[in-house]
Design goal:
This protein is α+β, with helices and mostly antiparallel strands. The chain has a single domain, classed as Beta Barrel (Porin). Helix content is about 15%, strand content about 50%. The protein contains 2 helices and 8 strands; from the N terminus they run αβββαβββββ. Strands 1-2-3-4-5-6-7-8 form an 8-stranded antiparallel barrel. The longest helix has about 35 residues. It is elongated, with a radius of gyration of 26 Å. It comes from Dyadobacter chenhuakuii. This is Porin family protein.
Length: about 230
């Protein structure tokens, strides 16, 4: 009888241990799954450079992106993103007499890949029955290709960029989230608008300010999907 009781107790102990291990692994996989998001965004690009020394609303042009986000903690998110869009500007809209006389304009396609880290101020996490949102700041590194029209010769049409900015993310309904973000791209090129670098002639109308690099800005609204699938051991 004692042997049977010991066998039964050992059996229940093993079953409880196995159940505990199962739920630990399953919950661990669920947490890992909740850390992964994919998303897409639509918005607009703007440019600042020789033709537009400051950001102007009339020069916003369409852009879009897709991205992957990994959330290792409530406060930190890591994101890889691919973005494409158009930038452009026209001298004729300036109040500067020199720019009006120059009357130069351009458009350029932009293709960018970036990797950034986001810091969530309100410890963004999955909350099934609570309002879940957080403002955040981000910064990182990227690489951009551009193709200005008209295009000059003898300069590189790509550049490393430093993306940084602010945003707000909000969980509307599990597993869907929305977010709005505005970010700047500091470039290391002065040729996004085909006006830059050292003067190559005496025509002032074909010269830009070599001391200022061109920058562009991305405003977008995004939707993301969070994976909640539990992977069985």
């Amino acid at each position: 009888m004692k042997s049977s009781l010991k066998f039964i107790n050992a059996k229940y102990l093993l079953l409880n241990l196995a159940a505990g291990i199962y739920f630990f692994v399953a919950s661990g996989n669920a947490v890992m799954a909740q850390k992964i998001e994919i998303g897409a965004g639509l918005g607009a690009l703007n440019y600042k450079g020789d033709i537009a020394p400051s950001v102007r609303l009339r020069f916003f042009k369409p852009a879009g992106s897709v991205f992957f986000r990994y959330n290792p903690s409530q406060a930190l998110s890591l994101r890889a993103e691919l973005m494409g869009g158009i930038i452009g500007a026209e001298d004729k809209h300036s109040k500067d007499p020199f720019q009006q006389a120059r009357n130069f304009s351009f458009t350029s396609r932009i293709f960018e890949g970036s990797a950034v880290a986001e810091y969530n101020f309100l410890n963004f996490q999955e909350r099934r029955f609570a309002v879940n949102w957080s403002p955040y700041v981000f910064g990182g590194i990227g690489y951009t290709k551009f193709n200005p029209d008209p295009q000059g010769v003898g300069y590189k049409t790509s550049s490393f960029v430093l993306p940084y900015g602010v945003g707000i993310k909000y969980q509307i309904r599990r597993p869907w989230n929305i977010g709005i973000e505005y970010g700047a791209r500091k470039t290391y090129s002065d040729y996004l608008d085909n006006l830059g670098g050292d003067p190559i002639g005496t025509d002032k109308f074909q010269q830009g300010d070599p001391s200022l690099k061109d920058n562009y800005y991305y405003l977008r609204l995004a939707v993301t999907y969070t994976f909640y699938k539990i992977v069985c051991p």
